[in-house]
Design brief:
Number of helices: 8
CATH topology of one domain: Transferase(Phosphotransferase), domain 1
Helix content: 25-40%
Shape: globular
Order of helices and strands: EEEEHEEEHHEEEEEEHEHHHHEE
CATH architecture of one domain: Orthogonal Bundle
CATH superfamily of one domain: Transferase(Phosphotransferase) domain 1
Oligomer: single chain
Length: 303
């Protein structure tokens, strides 16, 4: 493929569940962009085109340094596409595979993620699939949240009882059990990401999706100070509060993320963040999605 609309295709960056992602040149504005083009087999699938358009509308309402910008939306021979800013860097998932960041770096990353999600929540937008693979770190270490493709507009929680869509390891109990989507759904995932960033390993690990879902709903985590003996007590309380099984234990707060996780890195801290070094040759974009991201899973039941 040589062109997508007016954009000149220069490289294939990746392929996800919704479509392929290309590096492109915008001849009019003379800049590089990333374009997500819907998969041809999904074009006529129920809701596929609407899902892509929903992503564009949700992201276009958000203007924040920690959220990947969407520039345009169009159609290529009947196939919808989204135009994103091109980000040079790596995903948080890629960083965590190499090694856990130190405390200062981890708190700096969390600060940016929480700021971005806070604005999304201010707009009543629930991301619904927050995970390390959907967070891109720029070369200067700024985290940017991407893939609002299954974002839902929150109106006090909505339910989808027939199927689960997303990544099992970062799903919230209320979504697994009842299909409820609310701001707390995102904050539970933020608590899981905070745990993983600080400890260097996922909070829940299992051999299959069914076990993961069951454990998230029913199995309590170890107290964080048993994993990190030197962790600040306030930070531990905040993360563990974000990971409460019952979302009613904390209510949304005006202008912040739903649970107290929104203050994780806004507490006074002696740590000073340092720049995050990424590979100069790596490239990501707002549409890059792991090949194992959004899938449909059965409800949790005892394994």
């Amino acid at each position: 493929m040589r062109n997508i609309g007016r954009f000149i295709v220069t490289d294939l960056l990746g392929s996800g569940t919704q479509g392929k992602v290309y590096r492109c040149q915008d001849p009019k504005l003379q800049r590089e962009v990333a374009i997500k083009l819907l998969h041809r087999p999904l074009l006529n699938a129920a809701g596929a085109a609407g899902e892509l358009l929903r992503e564009a509308r949700a992201m276009s309402r958000l203007n924040h340094q920690n959220i990947v910008s969407v520039f345009d939306v169009g159609e290529q021979k009947g196939r919808p596409y989204l135009v994103f800013e091109l980000i040079q860097g790596q995903t948080l998932a890629g960083l965590l595979k190499k090694d856990a960041p130190d405390m200062a770096m981890g708190l700096a990353i969390l600060d940016g993620i929480l700021d971005g999600i806070a604005q999304a929540h201010d707009e009543d937008i629930v991301h619904r699939d927050i995970k390390p693979a959907n967070i891109i770190l720029t070369r200067t270490g700024v985290p940017k949240i991407t893939d609002f493709g299954i974002a839902a507009v929150s109106r006090g929680g909505s339910e989808r009882r027939n199927q689960l869509v997303g990544t099992p390891r970062y799903m919230a109990p209320e979504y697994i059990e009842k299909g409820r989507v609310m701001k707390q759904t995102d904050v539970f995932a933020l608590g899981l990401i905070a745990w993983e960033i600080l400890t260097g390993r996922p909070a829940y690990e299992g051999g299959n999706a069914e076990k993961l879902l069951y454990d998230i709903v029913h199995r309590p985590l170890k107290p964080l100070d048993q994993v990190l003996p030197d962790i600040d007590e306030r930070l531990q309380r905040i993360i563990e509060k974000a990971l409460e099984k019952d979302p009613s234990c904390a209510s949304p707060t005006q202008g912040r993320c739903a649970r107290p996780c929104g203050t994780i890195v806004r507490q006074p801290s002696p740590y000073r963040p340092r720049p995050i070094r990424t590979r100069p040759s790596s490239s990501c974009c707002g549409a890059c999605v792991s090949r194992t991201t959004s899938r449909r899973w059965p409800r949790a039941s005892p394994p």
